[in-house]
Specification:
globular, alpha/beta
Length: 215
Amino acid sequence: MNPPLTAPVPRTHADELVVGFVSISDRASSGTYQDEGIPALRDWFGKTLTSPWQAVERLIPDEAPLISRTLIELVDVAGCDLVLTTGGTGPARRDVTPEATLAVGTKEMPGFGEQMRQVSLHFVPTAILSRQVAVIRETPSRAALIVNLPGQPKAIRETLEGLRDVEGRVIVQGVFAAMPYCIDLIGGPYVETNEAIVKAFRPKSALRQKPAPTV
């Protein structure tokens, strides 16, 4: 059972990213099988982010009202800057994650879903069945980016990182490359990454100057 949150998650650094990981699955939330979405996200963020971060995790069933309440709690109460969901984005009757996400958003960000489907289409033609969406949720005091990801660990990594050729050159951008700058624009912390995994893109005017090395 997820403990209810009553206050923002304390930050240990002004630029610490607070991210919500939400795995949405009837069977995993009931204990029928082990959830793989949250461990995959935890592992990927641990390898990719070089700036401070911490996660608030939720494992819940495919119930639209509960999904919406969870997203609201993570943004409005916990103070998450970014919320990533996994699962529940297909055409099956119980797949209601996109509808629950759109219900809590104040701005839709369609480019994220479009790009994730482009990445996945390089692997499977059924990527066109995916209905992932992304939104900004704004409150009077803050805003957060909410993005639906696929449910499988391999697909999570591929859509976040994108695709590279045999020489390591990026041939299809993953969606995480745009997330740090989006978080900048909505007033969140400055997120930095391991560029060997994914390079956060920012226009030159938005780049922070690195401190000069001490002699």
